[in-house]
Amino acid sequence: MTEIQRQIRALAAQKGALILSHFYQTMDIQAVADVVGDSFELARRARQAAQPIIVLCGVRFMAESAKLLNPDKTVLLPAPDAGCPMADMVAPEDVDALREKHPGAAVMCYVNSSAAVKAKSDVCCTSSSAVRIARALPQRDILFLPDQNLGAYVAAQVPEKNLILFDGYCPIHHAVRPADVLAARAAHPDARVVVHPECRPDVVALADFVGSTAELLAHVENSPPGGIFVVGTETGVVERLRQTAPDKTVYLLKAGFVCPNMKKTRLSDLLRALETGAEAVEVDATVAAGAQRALERMVAL
Ligand code: 13P
Ligand code: SF4
Questions:
Q1: pLDDT tens across 109-125, in order?
Q2: What pLDDT, in 10s, does the model give residues 147-159?
Q3: Closest residue (by CA) to atom 4 of ligand 1?
Q4: To pair with 267 at 20 to 30 A between CA atoms, which of 98, 161, 196, 278?
């Protein structure tokens, strides 16, 4: 550990702070976290946290979800300008318009969304829980937002439901094309290609395995030694696998597969957050109860 990492650990212990990190954070941040997880696991651990302070090393919607699921705690976002462009693609008014057009349909919203959008939704989901939740909903018609790609993946896995998709996307995953998969296969003919469901359907169709960040990690880590993998998600997952699965050879599907917002958290930001208590995340009281209900339903389902 470096000196600043030791300072962070000492201060977290002194103040009673639980440090949560997403897998897309840089490895120096992951190394000082109490928990490193996908967005579902981070939400679950935030909800259970007994510590007075939760520090969320990730993007804003993750910190908002932590606050909604455990409102009595102080939730700090060390990189306060870390947003998610996909979350910004849908507004609460879009949900109103869709409900009017499709009365009776359930509204299922990916956690990559604002609290105001969650408040207008019936249930939230993450990439690892979306298929399970779509199956469990009583309605056949499901309005899925904002990610058209995750929505298409769920529709294919749950054919008994009718998914109506919003047209949002993650600019990082959506940029991958089938030609990138074909090029990676040509360069690494013995590799298995594993991708995140935020990739386009024509990319998902070419993959050997599809899963959330936690599922991709587990798939590679638990495969027989000596395996070769091309990983189609943010580079943080590849960097982590090089540590947790050193017996495997792992390549990033495409150069520049980086989420700039996830890379905004630096150790100095994390230390400052613990020292000063900035920035504490608050959720607008007018939407908090509704958003909390949709998130709690996700955890329950
Ligand atoms: P996970 O649900 O796999 O953690 O993904 C979150 C995310 O933002 C992917 O881009
Ligand atoms: Fe948002 Fe995409 Fe970054 Fe995930 S990888 S936080 S969906 S921009």
A1: 999 999 999 999 999 99
A2: 999 999 999 999 9
A3: 38
A4: 196
Tokens of 142: 């499901």
What is the per-residue pLDDT across 206-224, written as a single tens digit (0 to 9) for each?
999 999 999 999 999 999 9
Phi, psi of 42 (to 5 degrees): -65, -40
What is the mean predicted confidence (pLDDT) over 279-300? Answer: 95
Question: Which one, of 146, 133, 253, lies nearest residue 204 by Cα?
Answer: 253
Pocket lining: 261 vs ligand 1, CB cutoff 6 Å: no
* Strand residues in 42-198 grouped as ranges (E): 53-57, 74-76, 106-110, 123-125, 141-145, 162-165, 192-195
Q: Are 112 and 127 in contact (CB under 8 A)?
A: no
**Structural domains of the chain sorted by starting position, each given as residue range(s) with its CATH number in brackets:** 3-83+262-282 (3.40.50.10800), 86-169 (3.40.50.10800), 177-252 (3.40.50.10800)
Q: How far is the CA of 145 from the centre of ligand 1 (A)?
A: 14
